Amino acid sequence: MVLPPELSAIKTEIISHAREYGLDFFDTVFELLDYEEINQVASYDGFPSRYPHWRFGMEYLRMSKSYSYGLHRIYEMVINNDPSYAYLLTSNKTVDQKTVMAHVYGHVDFFKNNMWFAHTNRKMMNEMANHGTRIRRYVDHFGYEAVEQFLDVCLSLDNLIDLHSAGIRRHVERTPKLPGGEETDQVSSAKLPSKPYMDDYINPPEFMEAQRKKLSEEQARQKHVPEEPERDVLLFLLNHAPLEEWQSDVLAIVREEAYYFAPQGQTRIMNEGWASYWHSKIMTERALSPNELVDYADHHAGIMASSPGRLNPYKLGLELWRDIEERWDKGRFGAEWDDCQDEATRRNWDRQLGLGREKIFEVRRIYNDIGFIDAFLTPEFARRHGLFTYKYDPATNEYVIDSRDFLAIKQQLLFQLTNFGQPIILVQDANYANRGELYLRHQHEGVDLRLDWARDTLANLQVVWSRPVHLETQVEGVPKLLSYDGKEHSEKKLIAK
Amino acid sequence: MIAKIEQDQSRFRQIVRGKVRENLRKYMSNGELIGRQGRDLVSIPIPEIQIPRFRFDHRQSGGVGQGEGEVGTPIGLGPDHGDGSGEAGNAPGDHILEVEVTLEELARILGDELELPNIQPKGKENIESRVDRYTGIRRVGPESLRHFKRTYREALKRQVAMGVYSRERPAVIPVREDKRYRSWTSQYKPDSNAVIIYMMDVSGSMTDDKKEIVRLTAFWIDMWLRSQYKKVAVRYIIHDAEACEVGQDAFYHTRENGGTAISSAYRLCQAIIEKDYDPGEWNIYPFHFSDGDNWDKDNAACMGLLANAILPNVNLFCYGEVSTSMRQSDFSDSLERLDEIGKERLIKTAIKNKGEIYNAVKAFLGKGR
Predict the structure, then answer these.
(1) Do B1 and B16 belong together in one domain?
(2) Does residue B182 share a domain with residue B207?
(3) Of A127, A291, A316, B101, which has the fewest Cβ atoms less than 10 A away?
(4) In B, which residues are within 8 Å of A62 by CB distance?
(5) What's the total number of domains in chain B?
C-alpha cells in the first residue's frame, strides 16, 4: 500500500535527519496496518507468508486478547531484510508515526551494519514465503497431522544451534585419503631424518612403536562420529539422522529460521537501545514540533518504563549507549581513568575529546550484547540505575533481591546472555555403547535443566534419531544420564570422571 | 492473509479443545485455572501450549532487575511468572491464556469425559427452556427459509402493478425485492426445576484446604447441573453444632470453631425443602460435605432425618467426605447401614485430595436420576 502523502512527507523528513546523523540503512518500505492486521503480521514474526502452524494462531489469539483488554499494543515492527519492511499502526497519531519511523531507521541501520547480522539472509521475506510453500506442499502430500507433528518435533530442538558457526570454523575439513598402503607411509613419514647407520639410534623401535600407536589412535578418533563434540546439533541431525527427504527439508527450514532470528536475540539490548537512542535524538533535536511534545514524552516514557523484576532492554540499552557516548566525549576511559580513585576528580573528568559519536558507531558495528555488557557496564552505571540481582526464595515462593554487588550483577547478566540464555548442549557420540545411540552432553554451568521439559525434548530427539538417545547433565550437583529409548525414560547416576 | 491466520487459530483452538479433554483432571484439581464470568460464559485460563525445549530451570537461575529496595526485598514475581526479562532472546515467558468456552460447551466436554447421563426434566414451573417458533416474515434471510407462497404473491403483485403480467404466459419471476423469508421468535417456557442445596461442615476441623476441595467440587457440579437446566436454584447451608442458611460467599469463606452436629443441617435442609420446593415439581439435589467428624450421639438423629424426611423427597443425596485420614468416619459407617431406599438415593464418596475431585463428581452424578 502506498503511504498517504502526509506520512510519506514525514518519511522523507526522517530519512534526511537520519542520514545527517550518519545512519546507514537499507531502503525501508512502510506498510500501514490496522490493529488486527498488525497483530496477524506480528504473530508470524513479521512474515505474513510463513508456513502454517498452530503457534502463530496461539500468538495471534493472545495478542488480540491482550490488545482488546488494553494490556499492550504494538507500536512498531521491523523486518531485517533488504529492503526492510516496517509496519505502522493506522490508529497512531502523527507524532507516534514520526517516532516509530525514527526508531525503525535506527533498527535498520543496526541490521545493516552490525556484524552479527552479516550472515543473515537479506531476502528473508522471499525465503520465508518459499518455506511456506514447501511446507504446504508437504502438507498436501503427507497430511497436515504428520507434517505438524514433525514440525513440533523440530521446533522443540530449534535452540540447539551453534551461534558462532557463522563466524568461525570449528574443525578443519579433512581431505579424503586414498585407500591402501598408506599406513606404512605415514609411519615412515613420522620417522626423524637420519642416516641409515644411525637409524636405530635416532628412531629406536620404542619410538616407532609409539608413533604407530599415536597414528592408530588418531585413526580411531577419526572413525568416531562426531570427531569433535558438535554444537550445531541440528546440522548433525541433518547430516546423520535417518530422515525422509521431506523431513530433512522441514528440519533444515526450522534450522535456517533459527539462525536467521538468532542475532536478534543476541543483540536485543544493543538493538533496542540503539533504535531508542536514535528516535529520541532525531525527535528531540530535529523532528518534534512543540505541540507534539507531551504525546512524545508520554509514549517515550511508556517505552522506557521498568518494573522491579524486569530489566527493560530498551531502557538499559539506551542508557548504556548514552553512557558510552558521554564517556568517550569526556575521555573517561583508558588506564589513567581506571587508575584514578579520587571521586571528585572522576566526577569532573572531562578531556573534551568528543569521540563519543565515533565510538558508538564503532560499538554498534562489532559488538553483541555479551561484549557490550562486558565492556561497557560500569560500577557507576549499575549504581546510578539501581541494578540488582534477584534469586528465587523457596521459603516464600517469591523472587527476592539478592545483591547489589557490581560483579554479581555483571556476572548474572553475562550468564543470562551467554548462548542467548540457552543451555549449551553438544553431540558427544553418535554410536554410544557401539549401538548407534545418540549421546548428548549438557555443559553444566551451575543451573540445572528443567527436567520435565528435558525428558519431553529427549523424546522428540528420539523421533528424529530413531535409536535411543541420552543426555548427560547434572541434577542438583549429581551427574546424571537421562535416556529415552522410544518407549520409556530412564535415568542413572554417572560416576564422576 | 486473514484466512491464513484463521486457519492457524482454529487449529490452535482444536488442539486446545483436545487439551481441555485430556487434561480435564488437571483443571479440576487446580482452583486457579477456573474463572467464572457471567451466566453463559466460562473462561478457562489455560497456559499457552509451549513446545518443550532444553531450557534452564528458571527458579535456580535468578536474574537482574532494576529499582529500589534492600537486599531481601521481594520483587513480587511468583515462580511461574515467566523468565526475568533481563534475559535476551525472543522466547516469551509463561503467559496465561484464557480460552472462553460457553457453559454448554464445557458441560458437554464434561459430559463426554465423565460419561454423565442426563438428569430427567421434571416439574412444570419456574425453570425455562427456549423454543424457537416461526412467527413472522422478513425481507431478508437465508434462502433455506424462503417463504415460497409469500414470495410468489409479492412477485405477482409487482408484475401486475407494473403491467408485465400476462394471462397467456403467466410466468412469475421473483426478483430480490420480492423475496420473503420466515423469521422466528424465541419463546421461553417453563420447563423443569432443579434446586441444589449445598451443606458444608464448617466446624473447627474443616481446614481451608478442605474448603477449597469443597469449592472446586461444588463448582463442577454446579456447572454441569446448570447445563442441564436453564435455571438452577442454589441454596447454601453451613453448620457446626448449629446450622444456618448463608449466601454463596459466606458458604466458602466462613470458618467456625464449634463442635459438629450434622443433624442440625439436615433439619434445616428438610425445612427448606418443605417450605420452598415441592418434590413433585422439583429436582432436588442436596450435597453435603463434611470431614465426617460428627458428635457420636448425633449420628442416630441424622440417619432418622435422612431415611424419613430427606431421602424420600430428593432425586439424589450426595455426601462427600473430605478427609485426609485413611479410615472412614463413624458417620460414614452409619450411612452405609441405611436401608434399601436410602442406598438407592444416596451417594457417598471420600475426597482425600484435589486429584480425587474428578472421581467424586463422577460418583455423584454418574448414576443420574
Answers:
(1) yes
(2) no
(3) A291
(4) 48, 95, 97
(5) 3
Question: Distance (Å, rounded) from C-alpha A242 to C-alpha A77?
Answer: 39
CB–CB of B75 and A399 under 8 A? yes
Question: Which of B2, B65, B69 is opposite residue A311, by nearest beta carbon?
Answer: B65
Domain that holds residue A357: 305-417
Residue with cell 458417620: B331
Query: 65-104 in B: which are within 8 Å (CB) of A?
Result: 65-79, 81, 83-91, 95, 97-98
Do B334 and B215 fall within a single domain? Answer: yes
Tell me the residue range of the domain where B224 lies: 193-365
Q: What is the pLDDT along chain A (497 residues), one digit of tens a residue?
A: 678 899 999 999 999 999 999 999 999 999 999 888 888 999 999 998 899 988 898 888 777 766 765 556 677 889 999 999 999 988 888 999 999 999 999 999 999 999 999 989 999 999 999 999 999 999 999 988 889 889 989 999 999 998 887 666 666 555 555 555 444 556 666 677 778 888 888 888 888 888 888 877 777 766 777 888 888 999 999 999 999 999 999 999 999 999 999 999 889 999 999 999 999 999 999 989 999 999 999 889 888 887 666 788 899 999 999 999 999 999 998 888 888 888 888 888 888 888 999 999 999 999 999 999 999 999 999 999 889 888 888 777 778 888 899 999 999 889 888 877 889 999 999 988 888 899 999 998 888 898 888 988 998 999 999 999 999 999 888 999 999 998 999 998 887 55
Question: Are both B204 and B257 inside the same structural domain?
Answer: yes
Q: Which residue has the cell 545527517?
A: A20
Shortest Cα distance from B44 to chain A (angstroms)? Answer: 14
At which of B188, B204, B227 does a domain end?
B188
Is ipTM beyond 0.90?
Answer: no
CB B45 within 8 A of CB A62: no
Residue at A204 is within a domain: no
Cβ-Cβ contacts under 8 Å, B3 against chain A? none
| B8–chain A nearest CA distance, Å | 4
Q: Looking at beta carbons, which residues of chain A come within 8 Å of B64?
A: 311, 387-390, 409, 412-413, 416
Are residues A33 and A146 part of one domain?
Answer: no
Q: Is residue A209 part of a domain?
A: no
In a domain, B227, yes or no: yes
Among B212, B294, B228, B213, which Cα is nearest to B259's? Answer: B294
Is B69 contained in some domain? no
| Sign of the torsion angle spanned by Cα atoms A258, A462, A472, A392 | positive
Query: Can you give the three-state secondary structure of A282-315, one letter per residue?
Result: HHHHHHCCHHHHHHHHHHHHHHHCCCCCCCCHHH
Q: What's the structural domain count of chain A?
A: 4
Residues A107 and A135 in one domain: no
Of A385, A417, A449, the one marking the end of a domain is A417
Question: How many contacts, defined by CB atoms under 8 Å, are there between A and B?
Answer: 239
A307/B67 Cβ within 8 A? yes
Q: Angle B288-B290-B293 (CA atoms, 0-180°, nearest 5)?
A: 140
